[in-house]
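Retro notes - structure team

What went well: the batch runner handled both jobs without manual restarts.
What didn't: labels got mixed up in the shared folder, which is why I'm recording both outputs here explicitly, each with its sequence directly above its tokens.

Job 1
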Amino acid sequence: MPWSKQPRGAGRHGGAHGPVPASSRRARQSGYPPHRTDREVDVMTDKLTVSVLGTGIMGAAMARNLARAGHTVRAWNRSRDKAEPLAADGAHIASTPAEAVEGADVVVTMLYDGPAALDVMRQASPALRAGTAWVQSTTAGLDGVAELASFAREKGLVFYDAPVLGTRQPAEAGQLLVLAAGPGDGRDTVAPVFDAVGARTVWTGEDGAAGSATRLKLVANSWVIAATSATGETLALAKALGVEPRSFFDAIAGGPLDMGYLHAKSALILEDRLSPAAFAVSTAGKDARLIVEAGEQHGVRLDVAAASAERFARAAAQGHGDEDMAAAYFASFDEGAGEATAR
């Protein structure tokens, strides 16, 4: 299925994101009539009530950017202390998922995995309104997305499979790449959400349940994980052989093997800047396992992803689970043996 790229702001007035609601067209044509409804004004101004369930590294940044864009944000996190700082940005901190989704135009889930997202949405179920748009941004894997889409059908929600590409810094800057699939006639509602959190939206299909956006996310993450593992192993081998990392960087400088990602992740290791994590070891390990499972389901053996999953698991067992995924470097050594390089 072809992918279409939409720049920031595209689709708010029809086109690829779907038609402008009739209420919005009427308001634009006649100004603010005395009998207008609050919802008509909200649609016209693209200001929404957005529930954000899950305020970890990514979810908190998304909630903050939604609030800064002028949307009403209702945030919830299993550990409330991670959500509380968002109150300073104007977000309402909810005590339960059901409280968070009450009256929401759009519900955004950014949780650890598919089962976590499904559990939280079940808790929110009593307050969910049929017809509400659900932007599911958790990296849930193929089976996970299918289960979440089934729940959406059961509750009459408009389901958008919408994982994002990017880590802490682009998330905080509102510069994520949103990968999205979902019905065209509802995109005018979710477009302002994507515009607030991302620099660009790539639409991959009309049916969120088909998981086309998640499939693209897994392919992209397979490259990120492979590059991260290769970076760690290269630095580990350099240490073992007594080679200065700078010598390696100089040898490949300016050539096709040179890449900014290598330098960025290497610097985190060599300069001991693994915390706070841009993307944590434990989360990367979860994604690596989802990638391996997706390959197995489609008859593809992914040796690098499988080995990476093991490396992340070893690094987490050594106490690096909450550090940046570059800390998989330490999995190349017996516990504690690699510490001298970074510390």
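Job 2
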Amino acid sequence: MFSVNHQKFMKMDELSLQKVPYFFVIDFLSEKVEIYQEHEIENSGLIIDFQYFSTIKEQPELNKKVEWKSFPETMENFKTGFDKVQKNIRLGNSYLVNYTRKTEIETNLSLKEIFYHSNAKYKVFYKDFFVFFSPETFVKIIDGKILTYPMKGTIDAALENAAEILKNDKKEKAEHYTVVDLLRNDLSMVADEVKVDKFQHIDFIKTQQKDLYAMSSEISGKLKPEYDGKLGSIMQKLLPAGSILGAPKPKTLEIVLEAEGYDRGYYTGVCGWFDGKNVDSCVMIRFIEKEGDQLYFKSGGGITHMSKLEDEYQEMKNKIYVPIH
């Protein structure tokens, strides 16, 4: 298995060194790496809508009222994996674990309609397979500078002083500090002069169900000469993305695989566009997948030693939304 992926990452390096534009999709465990040059995208079943790159030709109308139902697992069920995570945190095996679940949903929209009518910084539709509408950048590379924007911590925007509460929430704050620290360390593997440029910046996210505030930071560095132009090597080094895994990474990955008991697949993987010079990539979250005739929404949140079962269960459910309004 390894050699095939290794070859794919090398292929990414080769193309980026030759300055050939391409789109890449990498699953959570970096076991499936797909590369599409610009002329191959149309036949790949992918439709992409990023801030600076879009393959949308025309925007179809939405002529129906959106129906949306989710069937989250019981708290008892959620608790099984949550307890495994907490036990590992108590044992000192991890201090932050991103625990995710898979929820059955029903909607009168097709995956393609969800793609066209949801609002997000990053959207991708993969024919008959999945759609996601992600607010989270993974890394950007601009003129030899690499930037990442970890997003951790959300709150219902309808609450009074919601943004302030989020900024000062002990648990959310600890989680945010941890992820910033983790990603600063990650970037240091491929970059020099790594620094935090913005800390605990609050973003507003509008959805049909409710409005949310999310907390993010900005970290940047200067690519080391040996990684210059080698996008595949950079991705191989940085994945899986720290913000959707936890810390420390290797042990936390073991905990996640044991506690979740389902295959994340492409969910929480990354995808991105290399334009021949610069890169914009995102973490594939806010993710709906089709299995047979059934749709599943995958969502989760970070667990620390301060996490309360009820709150985490609620957060997992809060995130099962579609940003159509």
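One thing worth noting from job 2: The longest strand covers residues 191-205.
We'll revisit the folder naming next retro.
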